[in-house]
TrEMBL record:
Residues 341-365 are annotated as: Disordered. SUPFAM superfamilies: HydA/Nqo6-like. It catalyses: H2 + A = AH2. It is found in: Cell envelope. This is hydrogenase (acceptor). The chain crosses the membrane at residues 21-43. Its main location: other. It is an enzyme of class 1 (oxidoreductase). Heterodimer of a large and a small subunit. The keyword Iron-sulfur applies. Belongs to the [NiFe]/[NiFeSe] hydrogenase small subunit family.
């Protein structure tokens, strides 16, 4: 560990300038909803940070969580952060297999006892030890063994955080969340099916910087990313307020970008950062692509009554607004379309994306 390069060394090797590094620290502070004055503190901590050992266990899941992380546009800040940790075990990504892979896990556990980070994706079956095993070890036994020496645990994805898809009724495997099994370690839930890559790496960056986990909500999720619901940050929100709703996926309202509430959007009851952080390097998110939010970062989202069923009827006030909106006719529709584009543009601008390419362009004169 002593001769391991620091994060700053690694960033320099990748061509990131000092100014770019400071910009990265400011973006991390903003990402974690920390005051701007914290950026120099983050810079100092990251300059000296050594690569922490991370053991990543995948249980009952679809591998979407790992896919989400690795499919991010490369190179990205997420990629850099992953270069800055020692990912000692991840059976989807590691080159080693069989005995060698298990030896790597044991070695990482012994050499870093009490200090390593455990990341878990997937739920844990409790109905039968044989439902899901790795190297002949049940998920339940492996979780308990690795958690015992961990400094903290990050439950990545709704399966690990709340049980997710395997937990959906009738839950044939008796699937449970990490926090149902492990009760004596700090756990942060990074929910979403899958979660946003930058949310996973944001939590890792916080751990690298402060040696602790970020502030959490009542479901154990980082407040910085799960403190607001999708609806409150959605660029279609003004249409909801005016009672302008798409009634089908191919009607005029849908074409004009009106609110998707009546088509089952779960944005009002879903807490996540999709509307601001977005996906695919800040390109878009489901609502921007014309589909309602499924509510995938909430517990039991598979059993919440149908993806295309509206939460409830809009209030009387918005219903009246709907009538007014329809009566106003095509001119208003055109104006609304323009407004939607403006709101969309504004929403895009209000979240500053910083990519590695940006950092490399920031070379000092
Ligand atoms: Fe679950 Fe993740 Fe959904 Fe899939 O590992 S949260 S089913 S995206 O893969 O666990």
């Amino acid at each position: 560990m002593k001769n391991d390069p620091s994060l700053l060394d690694i960033l320099r090797q990748q061509g990131v300038s000092r100014r770019g590094f400071l910009k990265f620290c400011a973006a991390t502070a903003s990402l974690m909803a920390l005051p701007p004055g914290m950026a120099p503190v983050i810079a100092k901590a990251l300059e000296q940070a050594r690569r922490p050992s991370v053991i990543w266990l995948s249980f009952q899941e679809c591998t979407g969580c790992t896919e989400s992380l690795t499919r991010s546009h490369a190179p990205t800040l997420e990629g850099l952060i992953f270069d800055a940790i020692s990912l000692d075990y991840h059976h989807t990504l590691q080159a080693a297999s069989g005995t060698a892979a298990e030896e790597a896990r044991k070695t990482a556990m012994e050499e870093n006892r009490g200090k390593y980070l455990l990341v878990v994706d997937g739920s844990i079956p409790t109905g039968n030890a044989g439902y899901s095993t790795i190297a002949g070890i049940s998920n339940l036994d492996m979780l308990k063994e690795v958690a015992a020496g961990a400094a903290a645990i990050i439950a990545v994805g709704t399966c690990a955080a709340f049980g997710g898809l395997p937990h959906a009724s009738p839950n044939p495997t008796g699937a449970v969340a990490v926090s149902d099994i492990i009760t004596d370690k700090p756990i942060v839930n990074v929910s979403g099916c899958p979660p946003i890559p930058v949310v996973i790496t944001g939590v890792l960056a916080h751990f690298l910087t402060f040696g602790s986990l970020p502030e959490l909500d009542h479901l154990g999720r980082p407040m910085a990313f799960y403190g607001n619901n999708i609806h409150d940050r959605c660029y279609r929100r003004p249409f909801y307020e005016r009672g302008q709703f798409a009634e089908s996926f191919d009607d005029e309202g849908a074409k004009k970008g009106w609110c998707l509430y009546k088509l089952g959007c779960k944005g009002p009851v879903t807490y996540n950062a999709c509307a601001t952080t977005k996906w695919n390097n800040g390109t878009s998110f489901p609502i921007e692509s014309g589909h309602g939010c499924l509510g995938c970062s909430e517990p039991n989202f598979w059993d919440m009554g149908g993806f295309y069923n509206a939460l409830s009827e809009p209030s009387k006030g918005t219903g009246n607004a709907l009538g007014w909106g329809v009566a106003a006719g095509a001119a208003l529709g055109a104006a609304s379309g323009l407004m939607a584009r403006r709101e969309k543009d504004h929403a895009s601008r209000s979240h500053q994306q910083v990519t590695v390419d940006d950092l490399k362009r920031e070379e000092s004169p």
